[in-house]
What does this fold into?
Amino acid sequence: AQSVAQPEDQVNVAEGNPLTVKCTYSVSGNPYLFWYVQYPNRGLQFLLKYITGDNLVKGSYGFEAEFNKSQTSFHLKKPSALVSDSALYFCAVRDRGSTLGRLYFGRGTQLTVWP
Amino acid sequence: DTAVSQTPKYLVTQMGNDKSIKCEQNLGHDTMYWYKQDSKKFLKIMFSYNNKELIINETVPNRFSPKSPDKAHLNLHINSLELGDSAVYFCASSQGMRGGGTEAFFGQGTRLTVV
It folds into this structure.
């Protein structure tokens, strides 16, 4: 069975500090991994994805994520948080061997950046 | 240009009514989805269509009926609305039935409130 875990419902950081939003996954095959962000009363916006190659992927707004196959993790990071980064973040996984392309989402992590 | 657009953005209706939500994408994608986001922000896939063909039909009450007149449109009709149907419904699209490494693009959501 495919699943995604975001172990923290909330992450609070001070502006200027580094941030990490954690994600671990479970798929039967090799994964495609995604991060999305949702601002209040908005749809999900794509941030970045891991397909293959370099385990460190860079995305929009200065975010990056590191794929760790041995730990089945894909944590989202940013070196210096901004107040405007405050939002709900979703990790998602798709099984590479899937014939249906279904995306499985984590339950989301609310990031709050304090000024 | 809005890539994935849903109408209406807000929908307030009484129990027992029938309502529809419309979705259109101008990205040229051949796969479209409906997701439901509950009050705890959990995202669950409901349906997926590829080139007007239903390919994913999760355990959803049969009061919910998707319709895809062409690959750019995927509408959601809900009969006999119940209080528990209150949620935010997101339409999304992506290229390719298997999805692969392509990200899904989301609409801004329709907030349905059943009173």
Observations:
- Chain B touches chain A at residues 4, 31, 40-43, 45, 48, 55-56, 90, 92, 94, 96-101, 103-109, 111 (CB under 8 Å).
